[in-house]
Amino acid sequence: MTKDLNERFAAAMVAVFDKVPEPLCLAVSGGSDSMALMALIASWQQQHSPATKVSVITVDHRLRPASAGEADFVKSRAKSYGFDHHTLVWTGWDGTGNTQNEARQARYDLINGHLGENATILTGHTLDDQAETVLMRIKRGSGVDGLAAMQPRMTQHNGLTVARPLLAFRRQELRTYLRAHAIDWVDDPSNENTQYDRVAIRALLPELEKAGISAEKFALMAHHMAHAQKVLQHAAQVAFDAIGEQTPIGLAFRETDFWTLERDIQTRLISAAIMWTSNVPFRPRYDTLTKCLGQVQTGHAQTLMGALMFRSRGKICVVREYARCAETVAMLMGTVWDNIWRIQNDTSEAQVGCLGEKGVAQLDPACKKLFPSRALWAQPAIFQNDKLLAAPSLIEKDAAYLRDLRPKFREFLKGH
Fold first, then answer.
1. Sequence-ordered list of residues with C-beta below 8 angstroms from that of 118, at least 6 positions apart, any chain
2. DSSP H or E segment with residue 322
3. DSSP states of 343-358
4. Which terminus of the chain is less hemmed in, N or C, by CB atoms within 10 Å?
5. What does the pLDDT average to over 115-138?
6. What's the rounded Cα separation, in Å, for the pair 260 and 344?
7. Share of the chain above pLDDT 70, in %
8. Stretch (H or E) spanning 250
9. How far is Cα 395 from Cα 207, in angstroms, rounded to an integer?
């Protein structure tokens, strides 16, 4: 059994990676899935790639008193394999929102901040996780994208690539593997709390399997949906090339042509536009999005997830919402403003913030005529004592002050 599992894992690594990243970074919480990932990586390294360095990251969410001890437990096991280990601590959460969603996003943000840009992290997601995710998405009424669920490799909105080499493995066989090697793991008490959707769904799986609706069937459905998703993503790219444009202030779609598109392509374009505009990781809910589009079509501007949508000059515009922009901050090298703009140089006594009314008033009239006024207020600006020094998104010579962390929208569409 051990030999078979190691061979399957080696094949999974080949399937997930064209070239294995160096160093190889693992997210390990101490649960059975991630502990099995670490053990399998140790065996894989020994047999297939002894020169590959491995680094283990544990995120301590500080949601339970035992969490610090669990991080130390992972560290001890990682060191026994000769792996580096780092514990990252989640602080600053105000306790609002969905705990599991907030913790998951914080986990990826902390890991991305630790590893740097364009990094890859391996996680212990299994076939059981895939089935649970699909069932949760069915419960929420998700469309093609939601039911495509988790992919073996996917890049997050922040640029972090998440790789899942265990996605074809069942949780129970991984636990059998751990027991065979006398490897302990930590059982998180929250995994028994049926108030969480995932835990309640997990309890349904055994009953569904008795009826022939297995985890493997859910994974197959996710596989089919992933193919359909790629077709729709390509169609959205073709539509954007034909009727859309990325402008200095945001995105615009030629209105007469936009309303003739199939509804799925309309919502896909606008959903991606909202995510890209505000640099947020989640799609808006479908019913909320369609209501907003209906209002925009009748000439009423709408805001959603930090983006402003409105009709102007024959186009549907999607730009950053002024009221949701970040506060003004000092111009310090490397600081990221509004989760979008990275400061690229220090400017004495200067600050970066929204252009706003005072900034727009100082723009060259020729510049102001180019864009709808409601879109200009949310543009980034460099001020010194209320005097406008630069408008990096609007004036080419000012672009050196800030770097836009988002990819070009057309590239963003490939994964959204």
1. 159, 161
2. none
3. E-S--TT-EEEE-HHH
4. N
5. 91
6. 42
7. 96
8. strand 250-254
9. 61
CA atoms of 285 and 282, how far apart (whole Å) = 9
Residues with Cβ within 8 Å of residue 227, at least 6 apart in sequence:
none
Asked if residues 53 and 24 have their Cβ atoms less than 8 Å apart, the reply is yes
* Ordered alpha helix ranges (H), 52-195: 67-80, 99-115, 127-139, 144-148, 171-180
DSSP structural state of residue 261: S
CA distances from 94 to 98, 203, 405 (A): 11, 30, 26
pTM: 0.79
Cβ 225 vs Cβ 142: under 8 Å? no
Residue 40 has pLDDT above 80, yes or no: yes
> 351 with 383: CB under 8 angstroms?
yes
Name the token pair of 358: 């005072």
Does residue 74 contact residue 32 with C-beta atoms inside 8 Å? Answer: no
Helices (H), 127-170: 127-139, 144-148
Q: Which amino acid is at 16?
A: V
In what side-by-side order are the strands of the sheet with 302-304?
244-247, 250-254, 315-320, 307-312, 302-304
What domains does the chain contain, in order, with CATH numbers? Answer: 2-222 (3.40.50.620), 238-322 (3.30.465.60), 325-409 (no CATH)
DSSP characters over 213-224: --HHHHHHHHHH
47, 71, 168 from 29: Cα distances, Å: 25, 7, 20
Q: Lay out the sheet containing 380-384: strands in order across.
A: 329-330, 351-354, 380-384, 387-390
CB contact set of 20 (below 8 Å; sequence gap of 6+):
13, 49, 52
Fill in the DSSP letter of residue 398.
G
Relative to beta strand 161-163, strand 153-155 is: antiparallel
The label of the residue with tokens 């080419």 reads: 396
pLDDT digits (tens, 9 = 90+) for 211-256: 999 999 988 999 999 999 999 999 999 999 999 999 999 999 999 9
Distances (CA, A) of 51 to 10, 23, 27, 197, 261: 16, 10, 20, 42, 52
Beta-carbon contacts of 36 under 8 Å, excluding residues fewer than 6 positions away, are: 124, 166, 169, 174, 175, 177, 178, 183, 185
* CA 84 – CA 57 distance, rounded (Å): 9
Amino acid at the residue 48: H
For range 397-404, the mean pLDDT: 93
